[in-house]
Predict the structure.
Amino acid sequence: MAKLEQKVHKAIVLALSLVLIMTILLTGCGQTGSKGKYKAGTYTAEAQGNNGLVKVEVTVSDSAITAVKVVEHSETVGIGDIALDRIAKSIVDKQTLKIDTVSGATNSSRAILAAVEDCITQAGGDVTELKEK
């Protein structure tokens, strides 16, 4: 009878140990709340371009950059303005700040990227991660 009690005791200890281990392992698999990549909203910033400040407005949801709009600039028509439009579209389409500058409009390109970076920082986003994508 003592051997039977010993086997039952071992089985109970083993079962409880397995339940404890499974609980610990599955705790890490649960959802982690609703914290997004960004604080949703619209943010503005400006940076120095070739001919003056480039002012942008960036709209983000909690998980994505939804719009980048250049609201004011003094860049050269036909060169700088084309670069600003192209880069704004690329940022939204690709969800990254790892965008090549436009040849002939390097300062304009750098200005919009810097201003968008500022907006992403304001929104609580990880600029380093966006530059690595």
